[in-house]
User: Fold these one by one.
Assistant:
Number 1:
Amino acid sequence: MALIITDTNFEELVKGDKPLVVDFWAQWCGPCLMLGPIIEELASEYEDKVVIGKMNVDENDEVVGQFGIRNIPTILFFKQGELVDKHVGVAQKNILEEKIKALL
């Protein structure tokens, strides 16, 4: 299951041992809700290798502002604490999986 990421736990997760994938979303965002099941699948499939989580943009102003998230869904990919890739909009599972594999 995808981890719930907040302003409070983001720093700890991004500096962790595993790569981090963050899905920025909101409850009112139709495309975000379409992407949700894909994120959940990937979180289950890669749980031993990558931390995959969701951050609600309505509840976490600090990180959203830090990365200038203006459109959702936006997915950020971090490796060793550094932002290495970004995807804006809905994507098919195989596209996101390629980006996740590039982190490993």
Number 2:
Amino acid sequence: MKSSIILCLIFLAVLLANCRKNDNPRIPALLEVPIPLLILDKNSDSQISGLEPEAFHAIFSIDIYFKNGEHPKQMDLVVVKNGDATNAKTVLPDITTWPVIFEITGQQLVDLFNEPIRLGDFFEFSTDVITLDGNKISAFPMGGAVPFSPAVYNLPGSSPILRFAAPCPFDIEDYKGIFVIQRDDWGEYLRDEIINITVKDDTHLSFKYKADNAAPIIMKIDTSTNAVTVDMQKYGSYSGEDFFIESIPGENSLVEPCTGLISVNLHHTTSAGTFDGIIIMQKK
């Protein structure tokens, strides 16, 4: 039950708040890492045309989110295609002053990866960060690790990654029926567990968590961008406590018509506090 998890989290928070590092010398020092901030120019393309991918043209700035925090020694702008961290390309190395402006075209992406851009392809830009003491924090870690926690995306104006996709056409009928859970940070579903997706109309889907008195969580699909939005709503209760939910905008809240995937970065709210978590579902 989520109420038990929340009680554990509250207990842990209180416990940590009353501990000092000097009380246990084995507690490691925390590493402060600057958060990159990539802002797309308002006149730039936000997605890649499936008909003319080479005509894509984007301009964006590269900065750091916390201007008054510790600055990095260096940042390197990197890009990956279709989430393949083993083939990351450095496109602007040795950034030591910020903000800086960067431009990229579809033809440059074709040349960079030495293959055409097809429907369903996507490119993600972020920065490797070299800290003042020489530690390197990779934008796209190997092994499928998550580069940034959901809390980073929830910071006002945060944008550590820019994602450009050549989306397949969205068809609501492709999202009806049985899906398989790939990830659920909320912990309600286990990986490979089955979940049912219901079609409400041409632009709305729904699913339920296993809460008491569960209500359908309504997902609105922007068919021009494939973005997913969940407006604030009550979705059920745990041990008599009402829980509410809404989506966090960004690249973790989208549908991928080419692969039949749904990903939503969700913000859970109850009287005990707020908790963020991503759920990813794949069409069976």
